[in-house]
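Recall from the previous lesson that a structure prediction takes nothing but the amino acid sequence as input. Here we apply that procedure to Probable glucose-6-phosphate isomerase from Natrinema gari JCM 14663. The sequence below is the only information supplied.
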Amino acid sequence: MNVDIGNALSSVASPGVSRESLERLDEQVATAHERIETGMANEEHGYEALNLPERTDPDEIRTAVDPVIDAEALLTIGIGGSSLGAATITNALESDTETVFLDNVDPEWVSSHLERLPLAETAINVVSRSGTTAETLANFLVVREAFESAGVDWTERTIVTTGDSGPLRDLAERHGLPSLLVPDGVPGRFSALSAVGMVAAAVCGHDLEALLAGAAAERETLSGSLFDCPAYAYGATTYALDQRGAGINAIMPYAESLETSAEWFAQLWAESLGKDDLGQTPVRALGVTDQHSQLQLYRAGPRDKLVTFVTTEESADRPIPTTDVEDLAYLGDATLGELRTAEFEATEASLAATGRPNVRVELEHIDEYELGGLLYGMEAACVLAGELYGVNTFEQPAVEWAKKATRGLLGGGDFAEAAAVAEKTELRVER
Ligand SMILES: O=P(O)(O)OC[C@H]1O[C@](O)(CO)[C@@H](O)[C@@H]1O
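The prediction returns the following tokens.
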């Protein structure tokens, strides 16, 4: 990926940053880079994620999915980091395999998929690092039962990716299911380039080697200066803008197929950096659609935002037919792609004209190689930003608390935590 921070630079308007202040910040980037390299070399928790391009074995993943490689549909059951990386990849790329991601526990929505899908031709991809997440396990139990009711042997159609112990691992062993390991030291939101994100990609027939090669190329750019490294340029600039008041980061890909990448990014940024009263709030937007819903605020609202555009060169385009309506003549001879590009450039310029910082993340096209680079680059940017904020990027205690309390409220976990939640929500909890 390439990163253009030009429109974030401004010595006058806040929250812009000046080149001089970024040059000063570069000393901290060099120190942070050393810390990151040490963490990677020592395979420390979290930093290990940046070693995935060398660690992930595509053959192992392909072997595990082989029994279901002809599936017409793939039902991935997981949530957060156990779903969004896979969804980012498979929603961005074309495949003959239909993909459905069951993350939410919405009974109507889950039922509608189970009633519609050809279960005998559907594969199940269950993913949970901890193997204990209530939403994932509950959805899996519901799916399993639906397969049984339809007379389909779910054990023949299920692949499990989880840690080396826990309820999901036990279940996989009990039923002899093909299973893969979530690598040690890799938090869920940083695991897209492991089996967590790549099982779905493999079932859909995507090029796993190219995904890893794109990530490896991005890894090669990591260096001690933000001016030489696109990922660090992004991480350092967003951090510097936050220090100058841009507490909100609206990420806006300009391609329908990249919409999920904004969801993935939002978890990465929020769960990694949102701690110790610090962090930057990610907001998901989609170009050009959200020009007509959010741009007014971005251009004229509070000066507390930065906009991250994610752009890509056109691959397939479509001409706009000419018409004899005079007012529409300007569209004649243009293509939908050209219109989109013009809209993006106009939006970028309109923000810049009012001193609203924006950063452009550029992909050459949408393919496995570029996606691997985007996922790795944003992860590295996030790790760098975490070092600059001085937070523990790789933990998520606030979410874990709620997870345990949910279990407690259902009678399956820590009562004290459940009781504390109950007090706030006026729910009754009984031992
Ligand atoms: O992979 P697991 O353990 O099911 O967790 C799913 C998600 O839940 C969280 O732990 C908290 O929401 C995320 O960090 C993680 O991506």
